[in-house]
Design a protein that fits this description.
The protein has 193 residues and is α+β, with helices and mostly antiparallel strands. The protein has a single domain, classed as Jelly Rolls. It is built from 3 helices and 10 strands, in the order H-E-E-E-E-H-E-E-E-E-E-E-H. The strands form 2 sheets. Strands 1-9-3-7-6 form a 5-stranded antiparallel sheet, with no helix packed on it. The protein has a 5-stranded antiparallel sheet with strand order 5-4-8-2-10. A hairpin with a 4-residue loop joins strand 6 and strand 7. Helix 1 packs antiparallel against helix 3.
Amino acid sequence: MRRKFQGKLLFILLIVGMLINNFDDPIILANAEDNIYEDQYQLQQGATRFYVVNLSLNANLQINCTAYYKGVFHVYIFDERPTDNHVLNDGSIDASITDQAVAYNETPSQIFSPNINNTVNSVTLNYTAPSFQLYYLEIIVVENGPDTFKLESNFALQAYYIPFIPGYKLEIFASCAVFIVFFIYFKIKKYKS
């Protein structure tokens, strides 16, 4: 009987801890500086791919995005969580993206690729973080898509997806969570007596 109560109490504490942890930004353990991160991903024309990275004060993020064929990619870094992919319905990029980005490169350079024995587009971006926080990286293919890009970084990145869930009131969620915890507590107390 006592063992069941301890198990239920542990379960409640775990749930409460998870709820408290979810009120802030997610904890991202991708702060392994000097580790090379590589990713390959195929994007359609006008499509985007997001990544998130946790940077400390004065950390220097180095990004290199290289096309496999003839695609042209643009790279943007944001210091706030993106809520839009900045691609308009006609496939063009919203002009306000450069106002919201803290760093960007829209000018690819040509490099030789032995894979196709021809030149391909490559975008390089260096950014020094002015504060400790999460930064969001967006890659957009703007011409000659679909194409696959190879992404290299000196920090570990994690894929990020913009949630398409409409916003909800945090107060309602917190109230429901507290109500559920008290409900479970009183059920356990009633069961115990």
